[in-house]
Write a structure and sequence with these properties.
Elements lengths: L16 E14 L5 E11 L7 E7 L7 H10 L12 H8 L3 E10 L1 E3 L5 E4 L1 E4 L4 E4 L1 E9 L12 H24 L4 H37 L13 H4 L2 H18 L1
Length: about 260
């Protein structure tokens, strides 16, 4: 034994809505007033949480009887031609409708019990232990029948048509994304930088050596004292000899050479 605490001891009809259903019983009968009618019964197929929920309906098939107008609307929803006054046996209609799947618009009504006179006038109630209150039991009531898209789990079939173009647009994006990774290798920008970095490091010591040698003479020259040109320095030879003594000798020699020639 398991899951007994959560089990409900009563059956509650699904809420109002349109559910895919199936006709499991169809027969030709007469109402209390003597009007011809179809007796239909079936169960809900979808959605799955409401699958198996039972429903029952009575459709007047005599246009001249009370309720004939509502019966005409339901017969049209079942796919029966109601635009003619030609009489069609109800037994044939019941045979054609048996086992048919279609969409049914449901409503809710209280589930009734018989009174002392045998009439269904007493609403059925039950005490819910989980809710700790008394609730009224409902039943499904058929409001209308629809036969559109009976073979589909969804009434609308337009969604798959709009989903196909989205797949076509995504395919080229995935194809052109692969060549971009192939023609952009990461090794190309890193290799040239490493090759040209080594000669630059070797050139720095050659540039530093002349700079250190070039500053040594300037430091020695600054240490020598500067004066008026005669202190601490030997005078040049031309400073003590006059320019007039050498000039004639050199000039005389040149003249003798010229005259001898």
């Amino acid at each position: 034994m398991k899951n007994m605490a959560s089990a409900r001891e009563y059956f509650q009809a699904p809420p109002e809505g349109r559910y895919r259903s199936k006709i499991t019983l169809a027969s030709a009968e007469f109402s209390k007033a003597g009007a011809a009618m179809l007796h239909l019964e079936g169960h809900v197929i979808e959605p799955s949480q409401y699958a198996g929920s039972l429903w029952r309906d009575y459709i007047i098939t005599d246009g001249g009887a009370k309720g004939g107008g509502m019966g005409k609307t339901k017969l049209r929803g079942l796919g029966i031609d109601v635009s003619t006054d030609v009489e069609t046996p109800d037994e044939k209609l019941a045979q054609d409708l048996l086992g048919r799947e279609l969409w049914i618009e449901y409503g809710n009504e209280p589930l009734m019990s018989k009174d002392a006179n045998g009439d269904y006038t007493i609403p059925q109630t039950v005490f819910d232990e989980q809710l700790q209150k008394t609730i009224t039991l409902n039943k499904l009531v058929v409001k209308a029948y629809f036969r559109h898209n009976v073979g589909a789990s969804q009434p609308q079939l337009v969604q798959p048509q709009f989903a196909q173009p989205q797949l076509v647009q995504q395919a080229p994006v995935q194809q052109y994304a692969q060549p971009v990774q192939q023609y952009a290798p990461q090794s190309f920008p890193s290799q040239p930088v490493q090759q040209y970095a080594q000669p630059v490091q070797q050139a720095f010591p050659m540039q530093q050596a002349p700079v250190q040698q070039g500053f040594a003479p300037q430091q020695g020259f600054v240490q020598q004292p500067f004066g008026n040109g005669t202190q601490g320095m030997a005078p040049p030879p031309w400073a003590t000899q006059g320019p007039t003594q050498q000039a004639p000798e050199e000039g005389g020699k040149r003249r003798k050479k010229s005259s001898a020639e």
